[in-house]
Amino acid sequence: MENSSGVYAVTDRLVIRQFGLHDVQSFYQYRANPDVSRFQSWEDYTYEDAEAFVQKQMMQSHDQPGTWFQYAIALAESNQIIGDCAIHTLGAEPRIVELGFTLAPEYQGKAYMHEALYSVLDYVFGSLNKHKMIAFTDVRNEKSIRVLERLGMRREGHLLQNYMSKGKWVDEYQYAMLQSEWLTKRH
Ligand SMILES: CC(C)(COP(=O)(O)OP(=O)(O)OC[C@H]1O[C@@H](n2cnc3c(N)ncnc32)[C@H](O)[C@@H]1OP(=O)(O)O)[C@@H](O)C(=O)NCCC(=O)NCCS
Fold first, then answer.
1. Best of 12, 45, 99, 143 for a ligand 1 pocket test (most atoms within 8 Å of beta carbon)
2. 162: CB partners within 8 A, 6+ apart
3. How far apart are CA 19 and CA 48, in angstroms?
């Protein structure tokens, strides 16, 4: 549950918290990196895009049906943002949420995202009491696939030409986890 300082979860090394204006520069730097955006919807990301995005997130409430909410992932010892994850509460069925995630390149390969998402799954299935979490990934995005499978998410489908990315239709895998599966895994 969020506390008064905008913190949603704390792990050994990380804090999952609301975005602040102090995050804009670092957020811009990793979002604008072509290696980071390769399998994502955005390209040519500008500082102004980052600033507007962060300002919007600061005004928004989490878990509103039909909207995405972006959580900053920060180092516990310095509060430095290293990435983010986002939860989309489906408009037609708010007991199902979709997950997205991004890590700055210099912080990859250290299991930070695994640690962050493990606590996010606890939060989603515990505090938010959601029924199911889904995630879509470009079938070529091997790092993302490994993150999802390491968490124990199941591949539910191979969706042909499901997403327009950088002017081309791409295949996606859909991954999922049920609340009951997470509770079994946790105990
Ligand atoms: C997807 C993304 C977050 C994965 O980042 P990542 O650093 O590989 O993920 P983690 O932080 O969980 O680290 C896992 C890696 O750390 C390694 N690692 C180091 N110590 C570890 C530990 N104690 N436990 C587990 N893994 C550990 C793992 O071996 C793993 O590397 P591998 O996949 O090559 O085996 C990152 O590539 C990214 O931001 N990509 C751009 C955005 C994107 O495409 N997002 C996905 C949208 S669906």
1. 143
2. 136, 169, 170, 171, 172
3. 16
Question: What does pTM read for this prediction?
Answer: 0.96
Cα torsion 26, 172, 43, 70 to 10°: value is -40
d(CA 131, CA 137) in angstroms, rounded, equals 20
Fold of 7-133: Aminopeptidase (3.40.630)
Domain boundaries along the sequence of the chain? 7-133
Q: Tokens 């989309």 map to which residue? A: 88
Q: What is the pLDDT of residues 71-104, one digit of tens each?
A: 999 999 999 999 999 999 999 999 999 999 999 9
Listing DSSP states for 108-144 in one string gives: TTSSHHHHHHHHHHHHHHTTS--SEEEEEEETT-HHH
Give the whole-angstrom CA distance, residue 139 versus residue 122. Answer: 26
Q: Is the CB of 165 under 6 A from ligand 1?
A: no
